[in-house]
Amino acid sequence: AGAETMKRAVELDVASRFQESLVCYQEGIDLLLQVVKATKDEGKKHRYRQKISDLTFFSDGKYHKQIRIEENATGFGYEKLFQEYLTEIVSEVWVEDPYIRHIHQASRHRLYNFLRFCEMLVKGPCKVKTIHLLTSYDEGIGRSQQISGLEEIQQSLRNHGVTLNIEFSSSIHDREIRFNNGWMIKIGRGLDYFKKPQGRFSIGYCDFDLRPCQETTVDVFHVKHTKKT
Fold it and tell me: Locate the MITD1 C-terminal phospholipase D-like domain: which residues (predicted)?
């Protein structure tokens, strides 16, 4: 039964049906663990344990998948990366990114990136009610514009029934996004992995799926608790 469950899990994984495959992996590993406990043959126990350790999914509910975005690759808009994890039960989201800042100079478009991420959450199919943002203050004269921009996003989200909680930290380095259904996505460059558009009227300016990307790595995890303790 464990082997059949694992076979089904692999088939779902290959088909990119990750949430369904997660359930099958967990069920299969639970069955294998029961077999290990009931087996007295140490050789068989060792082989079963090796099979379990070779799997990406573990009995504690953790999952890891890595996506490599190549330089100048397209087709990696936010919906492409996040939509399959935004199930209807998602109501709370945590965003940690030190560079959600004003749109001037090197920080250009980062506030817009966060806004577009929020737009994706508002569209659904998830029912997000609360977004927690942890970022760092902009440096110099950009701070007031950063705060003003974030407050405008906050008010706009409130009009859609979504609360945006904003916190600032001078020591934040992690870039990760967590959903309260257990999924966590870490992007090496945070939300700012797109290249600067060639112009305001160039293809890819509005549609992120058509925007060339900078090379980065995306790590997807599934854990039992998304809030850090």
Answer: 75-222
Domain closes at, from 29, 47, 62? 62
Same domain? 47 vs 74 = no
Residue 45 structural domain: 1-62
Rounded Cα distance between 85 and 106, Å, is: 30
Pairing of strands 216-222, 163-168: unpaired
Please identify, among 37, 62, 87, the residue that sits at the C-terminal boundary of a domain: 62
- Evaluated on CA atoms 127, 75, 55, 228, the torsion sign reads negative
User: pTM of whole model > 0.85?
Assistant: no
At 141-159, the pLDDT tens digits run 778 888 999 999 999 999 9
Phi/psi of residue 176, nearest 5 degrees: -150, 155
Q: Which of 150, 109, 107, 116 is nearest to 132 (CA)?
A: 150
